[in-house]
Specification:
- With about 180 residues, the chain is mainly α.
- The chain contains 8 helices and no strands.
- The longest helix has 22 residues, at about 45-65.
């Protein structure tokens, strides 16, 4: 089912005149893909202003990595990618840019949808599948999930380098389905 949700979003991204231009529709696609009970409840007036910050990071990632996939990155480029991904998760916490109902995990899905071969989705199930040790809260959600994004990107890159025929999306699915 999640494959269908991501395919719908991919089709929507492909149909846009400006690939990195964002609207509420992008966030609804991400919410559909991620599932759960989060709703985007940001007022329209402030949402439009905040979207520009997310668009800028998407453009920066595109400019800096120009179609490369995660497997192709040097150690320095991987560090730069982690920094840019952190910029996006930081946007979800900053009072001037955070969008109600849209946290770090959702932001990672937005990034992944735009850069399917470069950026993984940050999710507790994927962190578990990757074997990354995390701290959970009482609801079994990962505390400060954004803090693990760099570790996840490095783990994905390491695994992709070992398994040459595997795509990032296939790895994401494999790790997502491992038992918690």
């Amino acid at each position: 089912m999640l494959d269908h949700a991501m395919a719908h979003y991919q089709a929507y991204i492909s149909s846009k005149n400006q690939r990195f231009s964002l609207s509420i529709v992008d966030f609804l696609h991400v919410s559909n893909f991620k599932g759960g009970n989060a709703s985007i409840t940001e007022p329209v007036v402030t949402l439009v202003e905040k979207l520009e910050s997310y668009e800028k990071v998407l453009i920066d990632i595109d400019k800096n990595f120009n179609g490369k996939n995660l497997r192709q990155l040097s150690a320095q480029e991987t560090g730069e990618l982690i920094s840019l991904c952190k910029n996006v998760t930081d946007l979800t916490k900053n009072n001037n840019t955070k969008i109600r109902g849209f946290g770090a995990s959702y932001a990672s899905a937005l990034l992944s949808a735009h850069f399917m071969d470069l950026i993984p989705v940050l999710d507790r199930r994927i962190l578990n599948g990757a074997g990354i040790k995390v701290e959970y809260n009482r609801q079994m959600q990962v505390k400060n999930i954004a803090n693990y994004y760099g570790d996840l990107i490095k783990a994905c890159q390491t695994e992709l380098l070992k398994r040459k025929n595997l795509t990032l999306r296939e790895l994401d699915k494999e790790w997502f389905t491992k038992a918690l």
